[in-house]
Design a protein that fits this description.
Order of helices and strands: HHHHH
Structural class: mainly alpha
Largest sheet: none
Radius of gyration: 16 Å
Shape: globular
C-alpha cells in the first residue's frame, strides 16, 4: 500500500509541475502583447524558470517534461532577452539569446544527461541572478 501511495504522490507531483509549466507558458504567450514588461514580471518568471530547471536535473521525469521544458525555457529566454534589450543591457541580452538557442525546440541541441545537468544548473543560476535587478538598475 505504501508503494502505491508513494507512486501516486510522485505522479500527482509530476502532473502538478507540468500543469504549472503549461500555465506559465500560456500566460506568457497569450498576454505578451498586454503585459507591461517590468521587474516584477521578470522576477516571478525568472524564479519559476530557475526552480523548474533545478527540478529538471533529476532524471525521473517523463520525456514530455523535457520537451515542454525546451519550449518554456526558450520562450522565457527570448522574453528576458527582449527585456534586457529594452534596458540596453546587451551582455544579459546575449546570454539569454544563447540560452534560447541551446533550449530551442525547433532545432534541438542534443547532449548526454550529465552535460544537461550542468547546463540546467548554470542556466537556473543565471535566471535567479537576472531576476533581481542590480542597484544601478533600480528606480
Amino acid at each position: 500500500m505504501l508503494c502505491i501511495s508513494n507512486t501516486y504522490q510522485s505522479g500527482a507531483l509530476k502532473y502538478k509541475l507540468i500543469k504549472l509549466i503549461s500555465n506559465c507558458f500560456n500566460q506568457i504567450v497569450y498576454n505578451l502583447d498586454g503585459w507591461v514588461i517590468n521587474n516584477m514580471n521578470i522576477k516571478r518568471i525568472g524564479i519559476i524558470s530557475g526552480i523548474i530547471l533545478l527540478l529538471a536535473m533529476f532524471s525521473f521525469w517523463p520525456y514530455i517534461f523535457y520537451i515542454l521544458l525546451r519550449w518554456f525555457i526558450c520562450g522565457v529566454s527570448i522574453y528576458f532577452a527582449y527585456f534586457f534589450n529594452q534596458r540596453k543591457l546587451n551582455g544579459w541580452m546575449f546570454v539569454f539569446l544563447v540560452i534560447a538557442f541551446i533550449f530551442n525546440p525547433i532545432i534541438p541541441v542534443y547532449s548526454i544527461k550529465p552535460s544537461w545537468m550542468i547546463i540546467d544548473f548554470i542556466t537556473s543560476i543565471l535566471f535567479f541572478v537576472a531576476s533581481y535587478p542590480s542597484k544601478n538598475e533600480k528606480k
